[in-house]
Here is the input.
Amino acid sequence: MPNTPGGMNCPYQSMPQMLRRTAEQYADRPALSYKRSGSYITLNYQQFYLRVLMTARGLRKAGMLWGNNVAIFSENRVGWAIADFGIQAAGGASVPIYATNTGAQAAYIINHCAAKIVFVSGRQQYEKLLGVRDQLPQVKLVVSFERFLGDFKLPVYTLNQLSEVSHPLTDAEKKQIEEDVEQIPADGLSTIIYTSGTTGDPKGVMLSQANLIGNAANGLKHLDAVSRNDTFLSFLPLSHVLERTAGYHCPLMRGGHIAFAENINTVLDNIAEIKPTVMVSVPRLFEKIHSRIYESVHQGSAFKRNLFHRAVKIGHEYVQKHYINHQPVGLLGLRYRFYNKLVFSKIRQHFGGNIRYFISGGAPLDKAINEFMWIIGMPVFEGYGLTETSPVISVNSLKENRFGSVGRPIPQSHVMLDSSDELLVKGPLVMQGYYRDEQQTGESFTADGWFKTGDIAHIDDDGYIFIVDRKKEIIITAGGKNIPPQPLENALKLDKYISQAFVYGDAKPYLVALLTPNLERLIELAQREKLNYLAVDELVTNRRVLELFKERVDLFNQTQPSYQTIKKFALLPREFSIEGGELTPTMKQKRKEIYAIHKDHIERLYLANGGEQ
Here is the structure.
C-alpha cells in the first residue's frame, strides 16, 4: 500500500506554510515575472504572497469548503501560481489540466475530481468548457485570469474580481487565513495530477503536502545547486509534476526567481531576454540545441568547422577527466579554457550567457547529446521519476554524474529491482494513491509496499540507475526477442537528417521505423541536387531522398545486432506533435496513438512487396 509521511524530515508542514516563510525571509526579492505588452512585470515575494491570501479569501466567499478540489485549466502564468497556492491556502487541493486538452478531456477530469470551481487562462479555455457545458452540471463558477467579453452561459469572474484586489486584506482576514494555513496537515492532499492518459482514461495521482515538500527538499539537498540568486525560466507545463517540483517548488523554497516564458515557441527569445541561470526541460529541447549548433557549424567556413571539432575533442577529454573520473586536469584544463573562451562562450551567449545547468526528465536523453551539453558548458542533470513519485526518484549532479544514467537516488528514495528487473520504489516520495480508484492503487504496489514503476532498469555497483525502457513498451518480436525501442529511436535521431523516429515490431518478424526528416537539411539537399518538388509531402517521396535515408538507416544498422536492425522505414512529411495526437504535452511519444494514426504506413512495411524502402 502507499507510503505515509510518518517520520519524514519535512522543513515545512505544507506548501502555503513554505510560501509564508519565504515571503517573510525574501519579501522584496523577485518571485514571479511575466510578460505583458512587450516587457516583463515582476511580483516580489510579499506581493505574490498577499495575492495568494486574497485568492484564498475570495474562494472562501465563493463557497469553497475545506477539502474541496479546484481545477486549473491554463498554460503557465502568474495567475496559475496564485490560484494554486490560493486553493491550498483555503484548505483545498489544486487539480491542474493541460492547456492543450480538449473540452471533453477537461470535463472528464473536472467531473472525476468533483470540482465546482475551475480557473481558466482566458476565452479559449472558457469556450472549451462552454462546448461541454451539459457535461459539467456541478461547476458553479469559472474564474478567468484574463478579462474578456461574451455571453456567459457559465458564471465567470476574473481573478481580480474573485480576489477583490482593490480591497486590501484586513488584519483579521490575514490572521484567520494564516491560522488556517498552519492547520494544514502534512498528510493533507496538496494536488491531484492526472496522468497523460496514453493507455486509456487518465488516473488522478494524489500527492500530499509532505510528498511535494519532501521531494523538493530532498532534491535540493541532493543537487546542492539552487540559491536565491537563481532565475528559472519556466516553459514546461506546470500541469506536469516535473516542472511543478523542479522548476516551481524548488526555486520558491530557496527564494529564487521564476520567469514564465510566453509560450513554447518563444522560449529561445525569452532566454535571451531573461538570461536564466537554470531551466527544466525535456530531451526534445536539447536535441534541437544540438542540431542547431551543428547546423550552424556545418554552414560555416572550413576553418570554423575544424576549430569547433578540435574544441569538442578537447572538451570531451576534459569532461571525462574532470567531471566523470574526478582526476586533476593539469594542462588539459588550460587547453579547455582556451577553447571555452574562443568557441563555447560564444555559443552560450545565444542562450543568455548565464545558464549554469539544465535539469532534464520526462523521457530518456541521448548520452551523446548530454555529454555535448556538458562540453559546451551548459551541463544537463538528467533525472528520473514519475507523477506517482512526486516525481524525483534520482538525478545526476555536478559532483555525481554518469552519462547514460539517471543518477543516484535522492535522500529517502529507496530503490530495488524485482526478478524481472522492474524498478521498485519506496519512501515518502510515493503518492497516497489514485483518486477514487482503489483497484489501480492496489495493483501498483507489491504486497510489501513497494511501488511498481513499470520501468525496466539496471543499477550499477556505484548506485547509478540506468533505465532500459518502459516494461509495457518493450517490443516482443515474432521470434521472441525483447527489444526496448527508445535506445534505438534515440540513436536514429542522432543522424543529421532525422528529426524523430518511431520503431515498431511487436509480434512482427522484423523491426520497422517511421522517420521524420530534419527539414532544414532536407531542403538544403534538394537545393544542392536541384530536386523538383512543390511541397514537403512530395519531397519525402522523391527517389533520391528515399535513397539517402536508406543509406542513413543502413549506417545505423551496422551498429546493431541483426534482430535490432530496421528492415524497412517510412518517411513522414511532418513531425509528430501534440496537436496531431502523437505526443503528450511533455513531448513523450504516445505509442498506441502513433500506431493508430499511421497504421497504414506501418502495415504496408510488412507487405511482401509493398511499402517504403
Residues 302-324 form the longest helix (23 residues). Residues 3-8, 609-613 have pLDDT under 50 and may be disordered. The chain is about 40% helix and 20% strand. The chain has three domains: 15-280, 283-411+463-471, 474-604.
